[in-house]
Amino acid sequence: MSAELDALTVVNQLRDLAADPLNRRAIVEDQGCLPGLILFFDHPNPQVVYSALLAVRYLAECRANREKLKGELGMMLSLQNVMQKSTSPGETKLLASEIYEILQSAGKEEAEQAEAAAASCRRKAHFFLGSNNKRAKTVVLHIDGLDDSTRRSLCEEALLKIRGVISFTFQMAVKRCVVRIRSDLKAEALGTAINSTKVMKAQQVVKTEDGGELVVPFQEDSSVLVEENTDIPDYLPEDESPSEEQDKAVTRVGSVTDGLGWLSTAANFLTRSFYW
Q: Which of 38, 125, 157, 236 falls 20 to 30 Å from 180 in CA-CA distance?
């Protein structure tokens, strides 16, 4: 890892490390990472701000981390600043608001709910619960043709163009994508965008009453207007992991040992970067 890391490289790598549930406790316990992520909330580059928020959202998915996140110096105030800043894009404000509400409710749930959420935290394939913000919802897509990093990049580009998409996570091994969207955005818009690539076809995965799953195709003759997103610049496409890692359903960052080794490098960078 080069010593000349820029802020976007560091925050994107931290975001990807946080996406793996096995790394989340180590990131929260590290002395430099949380203060650095909070600093990134005030960075002039909107890509850096959004990636930092997404990293914290991943960390907050593990209920055991929430009290620590909430108590970290400057966390709640910085989230409020992002929410209130007039220059913050809409999706950035929504993500900050969701994190703020999750952390505000930390410690108030009953023990039974905490136990159930901890079990959910351990499921690698699921990142966004969707119960803490009524303005957002989660859509699970099964994507025929999502076979490699090239197709994944095409899918990313299609989703990033949709106004109302907050975040998304790929599960390459099962050809799925978990998409976090505003509540007023129709799921059909996601299908339309992905189908427009001509090499992939999206269907929606829904839960049945008995707890099973049902794959429902989008109506081919449905004409859903897709409003393009001009607020958020491209922030996710980046160098892919080696092709052999595509067998993993979620993990994109290598082994835990590799991740924690990089974590030390990132923490050192953050420690030296209190300048903006």
A: 38
Q: What does the alpha-carbon distance between residue 91 and residue 88 come to, in Å, rounded to a whole number?
A: 8
- Residue 176 CA from chain centroid, whole number: 15
Question: Hey, which CATH number is domain 136-218+225-230, 3.30.70.100, 3.30.559.10, 3.50.50.60, 3.30.70.270?
Answer: 3.30.70.100
pLDDT at 5 over 70: no
pTM, two decimal places: 0.50
Q: Which of 15-29, 66-80, 213-227, 248-262 has the highest mean pLDDT?
A: 66-80
Q: Looking at domain 1-114, which CATH architecture does it have?
A: Alpha Horseshoe (1.25)
In angstroms, the CA 274 to CA 115 distance is 38
Amino acid identity, position 233: P
Residues forming a β-bridge with 228: 162
What distance lies between CA 14 and its chain's CA centroid?
11
CA distance 205 to 249: 16
Structure-block tokens of residue 151: 């197709």
Q: Identify each DSSP E strand in the chain by its residue range.
A: 136-144, 165-171, 176-182, 201-207, 213-217
Q: Length of the chain, please?
A: 276
How far apart CA 252 and CA 17 sit, in angstroms, is 8
Cα–Cα distance measured from residue 239 to residue 237, given in angstroms and rounded to the nearest whole number: 7
